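Model it.
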Amino acid sequence: MNIHPTAIVSKRTNLHESVKVGPYSIIEDSVSIGKDSQIGAHCHISGNTVIGERCNVFTGAVIGSIPQDLKFKGEKSSLIIGNDNIIREYTTINLGTGDGGKTVVGSGNLIMAYSHVAHDCNVGSECVIANCGTLAGHVTVEDMAVIGGFGAIHQFCRVGKLSIVGGCSKVVQDIPPYSTCDGHPARVYGLNLIGLKRAGLDSKVLLELRRAFKILFFSRLVTSTAIEKVKDEIPESNYLTHLIEFITGSQRGVCKNK
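Modeled.
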């Protein structure tokens, strides 16, 4: 284990012998860090926090601090972070709130400088949260989503799979899977074509999703009617099924074009 002599690491932590800890970092009780992870300088990791393997935490990150929630009274909660994550400078990630509350970050994510992941968020894998991206409490971000710099996601909102949210956007309703969204408040502009192509979707699926988007988000049909029209006119696929299930499962409503 390579721990800088100025770092303070509790004897009650569970750090793999390959973990590196930089100057002046503090790692408190109950923290667990996996193989080949690196903790930069001046980081503070606390709480019931698990960080997986091959994660790289940069200068000044604060991970596992108590939730910014006035209801929190010191109940036992946790933070689980997967493997291969890059957590850049001065990012903050909080524990869950309430007894048994849990914040979860998957694997292969890039969380850029000054971003914030609040209590009870559930961030999938291979996501990007650009500089100063902010997730309020209980936000869900599905796999391979991208949130632009200074984007702010309201509590209990969901950001769908393979979607992209433009920088400085105000998100107060769910972001549909596969979409490009932007604005104050955010609205749907169309498919995230670049992201979908990079994910390997073929032209037939892209065409079907484009047709579905036109009906769901750009027509004047009410949502229930639009969904029935999509089901009647467009062949079923895993992508289309996920899109419809996401919309029908929304609690806050889904962003549209207007």
